[in-house]
Fold this sequence. Notes:
The complex is a heterodimer of chains A (about 180) and B (about 400).
Chain A: H1 15-48, H2 51-67, H3 69-72, H4 78-96, H5 100-108, H6 118-127, H7 131-141, H8 147-154, H9 158-184
Chain B: H1 6-23, H2 29-39, H3 42-53, E1 60-64, H4 85-88, H5 90-93, E2 105-106, E3 112-113, H6 116-119, E4 123-124, E5 145-149, E6 160-169, E7 176-184, E8 191-199, E9 205-213, E10 223-226, E11 232-237, E12 250-255, E13 262-263, E14 270-284, E15 290-298, E16 307-313, E17 317-319, E18 333-338, E19 346-355, H7 363-368, E20 371-378, E21 386-388, E22 398-402
Parallel strand pairs in B: 5-6
Antiparallel strand pairs in B: 1-14, 1-21, 2-3, 4-5, 6-7, 7-8, 8-9, 10-11, 11-12, 12-13, 14-15, 15-19, 16-18, 16-20, 17-19, 20-22
Pfam family, one (chain A): Sigma70_r2
GO molecular function, one term (chain A): sigma factor activity
Protein name (chain A): RNA polymerase sigma-70 factor, ECF subfamily
Amino acid sequence: MTPTRDSSAPPGEGGAAAQLLPMRASLEFDDFYAANVRVITGQIYAYTGDRAEAEDLVAEAFCRALARWRKVREYENPTAWVRRVAWNLATSHLRRRGVVQRFLNRQRETHEKAPDGDRVDLMRALAGIGEHHRKAVILRYMAGLTVAEIAEQEGVAEATVRSWLTRGKAALAGRLTVQDEMEQR
Amino acid sequence: MSTPDDTLFEEAFADFAHAAELMVDPVDSAVIHGRVRRRRTTKGAMAAALAALVVAVPAAWWLQESNGQEVDPPPADDTTAVTTEAETSPEEAGGGTNSVPDGQATGGDDLVLPTFTDLVGAEIELPEFFPGAGELNDACPVAPATITDAAGSAYGDGKIRLLKVVQTTLEEDGPVEAVALFGCTPGDALVTQAVSVAGDGEGGWEATEAVALGDTNEFPLLDIAPAAVTGVLLLVPEPHGTDQSGPLDYDIYRYRTGADLEDVTDTAYLWGITDLAVEVEKRDNGDGTWTAEATVTNAGDHESQAFTLSLCADPALAVDGLDGLPACTEAREPTAEYEALAPGETVRAEWTVTPAPFDEWSGDAQAGGAYFDVSVDMRAYGSDAFAFDYDNSNDYGAMALIADDVAETP
């Protein structure tokens, strides 16, 4: 009952060459992983507010990339594919778990090493803004994506992203200002 | 409130990004390799289990129409060129499935056919999941098997879970029978088997015919669906290793009683990838109420599945016409059902939302906004079709309306 489809080896690569491909692809994946995993995990951490959760979600995204590495590596931008999968996983995860409520609750707890100084403020401020706004700000300023790239990833119009960014930045600024004032008192 | 310019944000986030990258502790790439090796086809199996649960499923599915038109090739002696709905309906072929009380149905020859609900909690003698493997079968006890609803199960628990039940004829002019797909997870991979099940005449259920046994390496049976004319279709993703391409590769076999499995992959009619785009917009009505409008568009090039819209909302939001809308921390309830959308077709639904006075909002809502969340749940399981998440990158099926600016309304 073994399926009888043709091998997926690329044209022209047969015999020993085909046997070598997995090792080559494997090493290539390792390089890809090393170059991207921390950056993407940092972004997801900023989005979810939970470091361990972010690590799990990004690991899952890379698992999916590895499972179809022959295809993904041919993409114009494999990093974008993994980032998108990771963000989708994170978004689904947050929504299933009650969206912002749990996120905010986590921010009030200090079970793990937290960023210090201004980073704490930024983390808390991010936690307090809307999901779309938070995502847009992180993708723009942490991932360095353009508005067009964010729009493509999220499947929305560029105008929508600009709106999210404008409102997200305003909300962030407001929350950071409030925190500053509270700390000065 | 003024908004800082981009430069300030870029500086702040550059430092923040660097700190976040240093704080995280990703696993070594060897761990990723190991997970994928162990998992192999489990990922696809998880998709099937999710479909069986009828919980929120991805917005894009690789579907195989199995109970409609030109599903698989007609029998060799069938001279009808085009298979019609009437010709392909198992109910028609088997003499009908008149409903009977308690959710059960009778097939031809007085067979009593179980529904999904009937089998959950039942004890049934099943064939072994690992024939000839001795003690390995202890991890998946089948003599008898106590059937568990997939919804309440966890992977790795070794329980015998019911994934799906379909009704079809297994031989030409034969009665309609119920074929159940059972799964067990002795380790980190799901093993499955499809078995014909009928009433045992004493109020219980018995396996009457072994249809197919999955093998995680050679024959990772993922899903079942009624064949167009006679038989049951078996969806088998190609086993793939670490460096092979993903789950777009699959095979579909047709099982008929007494016949060899037939590979109908190339001729089975595919619905293909259907991408449902979901958007939720909000409008301030200026009278203390807001209008939330959900737009669902079939952005793919094939007909979609039927689907439901499910809602949840922050307790601070009252929705006209809907009492007791669940909070988003609870299980949401489907609130509207829609039939399949043609490519490019759009449906809209809107609700009037009335926020409570801001000072009555919870602290979390005051800080983060009150959510009105719309989810699209594909009715894949209920349609007798294969549900196959084609690339696992479409995990989102919901968009949330974030009413975080309600508080800013004068």
